Amino acid sequence: MRENGAMPASDVAEQPDQPWNRQRLRSTNERLLLDRLRSAGAASRAQLARETGLSKPTVSSALAALAEAGLVHEVGTHAPERGRVAVLYAPDPSAGYALGIDIGRSWLRVAVANLDGELVARADVRNRARSSGALADLVVATARQVVANSGVAQGEVAHAVVGTPGVYDPERRRVRFAMHLPGWGRAGLVDRMREELGVPLEVHNDANLAAFGEYTYGVGAGSRLFAYIMIGTGLGMGVVSEGRVFTGAHGGAGEIGFLPWPGQQRLRTLEDAVSGVAVVESARRFGMTGQLTAKAVFDSARQGNSAAVKAVELESERIAHTVAAAAAVLDPDLVVLGGGVGHSVDLLLRPVRENLRALTPLRPKIVPSRLGEDAVLLGAVATALGTARDVVFERRSES
Fold this sequence. Notes:
It is built from 14 helices and 14 strands. By secondary structure, it is an alpha/beta fold. The protein has a five-stranded mixed sheet. Strands 12-11-10-13-14 form a five-stranded mixed sheet, sandwiched between helices. The chain is globular and about 75 Å long.
């Protein structure tokens, strides 16, 4: 007996002549071919038929539909030793675009990429905003300028992703825990940026995006589970497992800066102990004076300044504790050190590894970020591309 008059799946499968069923099948075949071309490169109709199991007429029909929709194009020919010259097809990268935005305390980075992931325009501007409203204005103005400079029409940007410190609350549509961007958690800011940009927009934690960027374009490629530890103005961690970012039940996974740091009242959290600010504070305690930044401390350590060397040694110990905590909870095969402090791995890598050996038998491979300051931006682009490709396919297939 059928509940609520619903038709069993077996009955649906036996209705091949239903128009909606045929349309869905065509769409599935087209998406199969498009995904194959995107993942493995240009191919001929015969090659696609062999690799997908579809018949040659089906492949020809699907490619024709994809070409008419502007989703694939001819990119050359292949002349085999025997037989006809074969036309090669590839996805058309100009079928749509994605927008990536990295909002940091000191810098705002924005880029537009085509569907192949190639950046077609980019801007890096100093974040001199003095309020959350001014920062939202800066984001919108910079993004608009980058899109204009790319020569891409606004409507061709299918999706945008913003990377920011803190955790985005999708129910309240606001950012929480962005301690280093005062006022950034105010309600309405994300909605305002989304409305003024006129582009579907997601917000993600910057460390999570950096981890995904490193997985997609950097040293994390092929890793089963790796952790990206971002050490800069603050401290955060992104985790990628089997190619997917792990965010936890409420988006707070990886917020290791909130871990308590025992022993010293002044250092209440792990972020207090490990961030770039902590490096400067340690250097001052050891005797350095003047206008100091974490970069200046590391530069002085390279020149043999004893106070700076001690500060770097202490930082190495604390980073090793951070890695040990991540290793105990996650058992990653790889840990990537990134962020501003991560730029100084020439000084940190060896002592971090040595300290880790003294702390725990769990010893994941530790490497520096390959993407450096671009990790968040490229992670935002890669995340936006995942949705943009779907949006463009659906939009053009239905038109």
